[in-house]
Amino acid sequence: MFATQKYASQSLSAVLAGQTLTEALSELWKAMPDLRPQQRGAIQDLSYGTLRHFGLLDNTLKLLLNKPVHEPALKALLLVCLYQLQFTRAAPYSVVDHAVKVASHTGSGQGKGLVNAILRNFLRRRDTILNEARHNDYGKWSHPQWWVNAMREAWPAQWESILNAGNQHPPLTLRVNRHRSNVEQYMALLAEAGLEASVTGKDAIRLRYPVGVDRLPGFFDGLVSVQDLGAQYAAQLLDVQDGMRVLDACSAPGGKTGHLLETATLDLTAVDSDAQRLTRVGDNLQRLGLSAKLVRGDASRPKEWWDGTPFDRVLADVPCSASGVARRHPDIKWLRRPEDIVQFAQQQAVMLDALWGLVAPGGKLLYATCSIFPAENKDQAAAFAARNADAQRLPVNVGTADDGQLLPNPEHDGFYYALFQKAR
Ligand SMILES: C[S@@+](CC[C@H](N)C(=O)[O-])C[C@H]1O[C@@H](n2cnc3c(N)ncnc32)[C@H](O)[C@@H]1O
Questions:
Q1: pTM given for the model
Q2: Residue 152, domain member (yes or no)
Q3: Which residues contact 70 (CB under 8 A, 6 or more apart)?
């Protein structure tokens, strides 16, 4: 537990200093190649869990302290340990004993006594302290106040369930590769492997208990991919047919590219501005036995990479706040700032306008985000339609009351889709 607490605190400190958790963990794996897979898993669980419940834990710590802790590493250690004590089954005495040892190797090494006192005080007064810690929105919902306010305003009837969903463990959904299998056959393979699951969409199966991909039958032979149900609507909505020329303009890591190619035989160009991420599109397609033309390019500057032949279908799965998938990346809640949403919306508008010029007459463009902020979604789509008289908005049936908006729930993440057809 010593190493787990130490390295989880280190990655939490990195996030609190502005790094993403993915970056922090990947630097840690590089620096500590001898960590065993189980240790990595435990470090990951503690880092994710602490960030998921960060508001509550931070309020709790403030109530336990007489004065603020100035050493970031010590503060991170205390937060990780409070998470362990409140949300895991780790034995409390063991959590405290190890934390004291980690504290003696942390920062100035002076924090041993403080860590011991704070954690023992928490164990003695847990219920009272937690009740008090939940008194404001920050502690109650473990989201920043500006985010809570934005949800209240945008979703007066659903904001509580949205915030609650944002703090849960995400579902693990698979997409069966139609070229190689189908949901019935794959359900039988899962049953043989002793994995409980249910069919939740045309190509979608949700596992009752998440497992690593190495336990999924035929994963490395391309039988299935891991993809949220919400993301699986893209290929369906874009209505691709054999022989079409298709552009996936922000394609990496290739989740939707793969689904489009599993749905029909296409002449598909997959663009992404990030060369490293683009290689993942190639790797994913190779695993699935599919292929596309991969182009490193900026979707808002198509002149730099487009050959001038229009596309029948364009998928614009644009960079966004990722607020609909915060439960998969809980660091997002703490790294985003309100002004980021404005910047994303501006960047998305530029991309949309640029990509519209590539759509053939009668062709379709599907705008997609994994956001739940209206500025990136319905407001963006309405502004685009108002700017482009040749864009006809088509209905998007994803089974929700709000056209095209999926809110995070136990079945799927938060996504948004708007579909436009170009006048002939
Ligand atoms: C939401 S992700 C795409 C997810 C992908 N469609 C999938 O289903 O796996 C957005 C992608 O846009 C890329 N991106 C960001 N800015 C871009 C730009 N100006 N042009 C093209 N791609 C961009 C990012 O590198 C990222 O891979």
A1: 0.95
A2: no
A3: none
| Pocket perturbation via mutation, ligand 1, pick of 250, 280, 350, 413 by most ligand atoms within 8 A of CB | 250
In 3D, which of 136, 96, 165 has the Cα closest to residue 323? 165
Measured in Å, residue 258 CA sits from the centre of ligand 1 at 15
Q: Rounded CA gap, 99 and 64, in Å?
A: 16
**Are 249 and 382 in a shared domain?**
yes
Q: What span, in angstroms and rounded, lies between the C-alpha atoms of 271 and 292?
A: 10
Atom 25, ligand 1: which residue's CA is nearest?
274
CATH code, domain carrying 66: 1.10.940.10
| Spacing of C-alpha 360 from chain mean position | 32
How many distinct structural domains can be found in the chain?
Answer: 3
CB proximity list for 397: less than 8 A, separation 6 or greater: none
> Which of 248, 272, 278, 283 most suits a substitution to test ligand 1, by most atoms within 8 Å of the C-beta?
272
- Token pair recorded at residue 181: 């299998």
Q: Beta strand 267-272 with 293-296: parallel, antiparallel or unpaired? A: parallel
Statement: residue 399 has pLDDT above 80: no
Please check whether residue 98 is in contact with residue 1, taking contact to mean a CB–CB distance below 8 angstroms: yes
pLDDT at 105 over 90: no
Which pLDDT belongs to residue 107?
75
Residue type, 297: G
Which residue in 238, 299, 370, 406 is the catalytic one? 370
- CA 119 vs CA 13, 63, 135: distances in Å: 19, 12, 21
Instruction: Write the pLDDT tens digit of every residue in 192-238.
Output: 999 999 999 999 999 999 999 999 999 999 999 999 999 999 999 99
Q: Is 205 helix (H, G, I), strand (E, B) or coil?
A: strand
370 is catalytic: yes
Residue 394 in tokens: 């088509």
Residue 355's identity, in one-letter code, is L
Is residue 158 in some structural domain?
no
- Supply 123's token pair: 């164990």
Q: Which helix (H) or strand (E) holds 416?
A: strand 415-422
Domain boundary among 142, 163, 195: 142
Residue 296 CA to residue 307 CA, distance in Å, equals: 14
User: Where do the H-state alpha helices sit in 239-337?
Assistant: 255-263, 275-288, 331-335
CATH code (residue 415): 3.40.50.150
Pocket (CB within 6 angstroms of ligand 1): 231, 250-256, 271-274, 277, 298-300, 317, 319
The domain containing residue 259 runs over which residues?
230-422
Same domain, 217 and 235: no
Of the candidates 226, 253, 271, which is a domain's last residue?
Answer: 226
